[in-house]
Amino acid sequence: MSRPRKCRRVCCLPDSSQYGPLDSNLNNENIINMTLDEYETVRLIDIEGFSQEECAIRMNVARTTVQWVYNDARKKLADSLVNCKVLKIEGGEYMLCNGEENFCNKGYCKKRCEQGVEN
Known about the structure:
The protein is α/β, with parallel strands linked by helices. Helix content is 39%, strand content 13%. The chain has helices at 36-47, 52-59, 63-82, 108-114, and strands at residues 8-10, 18-19, 31-34, 86-89, 94-96. The strands form 2 sheets. A 3-stranded mixed beta sheet has the order 2-4-3. It has a two-stranded parallel ribbon with strand order 1-5. It is globular and about 45 Å long. The termini are far apart.
């Protein structure tokens, strides 16, 4: 029997949920789906500069989970860029942060909430 899956904590929703070539033919073969928790690992590690361990703490999961999710996200980003596919960010098993957690020391979550992004 496997362990129940934890909801992964996500700080904010992306400003846009779809990225890709402007002249792309939108069919199922040209779309790659990235979950919000995959997006969050890329944001935390590549943009914020956190280690996988720090990312795991912020997302409330194990470091090995972050490593697995991050690797999947990077493959999807590469496939989108190299093969001119549309990247859609949606879904996943996540819980949106309310901006008042102890780890929100940069105020990013709270800032996003003040800008009108839903919790």
